[in-house]
Amino acid sequence: MLTFFNIGSILLFIYFAFVIVLTIQIVLDNKPPEVAVAWLLAIYFLPYFGAGLFLLSGVNWKKRKIMKQLPERSFKTYLGPVLEQQKTFLQEAHTNNELDNDMVKAISLALQSGNSIVTLNNRVELYYEGGKFFDDLIVDLENAQDTINMEFFIFRSDELGRRITTILERKAREGVKVRLLFDGVGCFNKQSWKFKRELKNSQIDAHYFLDPLNILSSRLLNYRNHRKIVVIDGQIGYTGGMNVGLEYIDGGPQFHRWRDTHVRMVGESVQLLQSVFLSDWYNSGGDVVQDARFFPLPAAKGDYLPTQIVVSGPDSDWNSIKKLFQLLISNANSRICIQSPYFIPDQSLMNALETAALSGVEVNLMMTGLPDKRVPFWVAHTYFEDLLKSGVHIYLYEGGFMHAKVLIVDETISTVGSCNMDTRSFHLDYEVNAFFYDAKITADLIEQFNVDVAECKKITFEDIREFSILRRLRNSIFRMIAPVL
């Protein structure tokens, strides 16, 4: 007869056997060492909870099929002949000294790893705060004639979100085809039921990327679409760091200001943004779109501004954005400027930054000094001492919340997008960045970086030494499990 003690012993045996199976699974997955160790610690020292968390968000679905269609593969399918032409362009540009060797290597890496073609005719406008960005976006939405495609990680049903959806509903009634895509986790608990009901009853075609309320996709909730893309009439594109919410204009209840970076693009690169959106749309249950109306020729000739739209995700063949970051940092000759709200690098990126600084390159890292999430903020501090030793300048922005995702290298290469300088963005989230090979764009970003420095606290060794032992211990403990958060 089974007793309570016997049942408990059997359950304990089953759990230990299960832990052994999970351990073998983690080892065979060949995850990065820091990620594997973090999961093992979670499973061993957080009984039941750690194992449950691994099943929910730690299984390596990259070895399986997460998305039906990846933008990188769509680029290759529809732009195959163009990809071959790019190689000729790179050879000629290098021969004619139009692009230096560092640019050629960066462009080639994006081509080979993500099929990201380089477009030449583009016009770009940079935004450093939400007010101007949303004013221009609303004007462009009002002027839309044929199609509007929008996707955001966060789209709140606040005053701003309702204002934009009101415009979208009206444009849909006028005959404009409107598609709206949200990330399921990013928008969870940020949209009222009334908003969702009204949206469902409107003529807007709306979908969620991995809806957390869908039992079929719940196992994939650790993978999120962090991209922010708007494409209007196939002619105007937006991308960068800003989502839809009043806090991106006024800082919200938590911050007195929100500092972000976003871009408006007109020209050939818009077609690439359109391709990314349509792939995400299809992966979220939308229809397959191959209509030429979504890929019109640019209405006007742009400036000569070599640009690449680069994407990455957990099931990409290569982590293209991360590899580009590493390459650009390693090849820097004079200066590196980084802006990211979070800083949780892996060892390869740490080595690249330290090596650059030790070789005489001016390396500047700026992250938020007023955090929205405590744990990533604490973890970032564990990297500061080694960075300072190598000569990296570290700035904590205190003029509000720093949400910009920017990398600037030397005088002619820069990138703006959705990708943070952290493990989650590199390995778990779907991201998109625009890479610019242009002195003027880079100069504008450097000028804004210098403006931001004036509102920063510069970290010194004295600041690090003032940390109490308990504070250091707390930060280091969370660093051990940061890769699984």
Q: What would CATH call the architecture of the largest domain?
A: 2-Layer Sandwich
State the CATH class of the largest domain: Alpha Beta
Tally of strands: 20
Rounded mean pLDDT is: 87
Radius of gyration, rounded? Answer: 23 Å
The geometry reads as globular
Distance between the termini: 44 Å
**Helical amount:** 40-55%
**CATH fold description of the largest domain:** Endonuclease, Chain A
Treating each run of at least 4 consecutive H or I residues as one helix, how many helices? 18
From the helix content, strand content and strand pairing, which structural class follows? alpha/beta
CATH H-level superfamily of the largest domain: Endonuclease Chain A
Beta-strand percentage range? 15-25%
Largest sheet: 16 strands, mixed
* Residue windows where pLDDT falls under 50 for at least 5 positions: none
Number of domains: 3
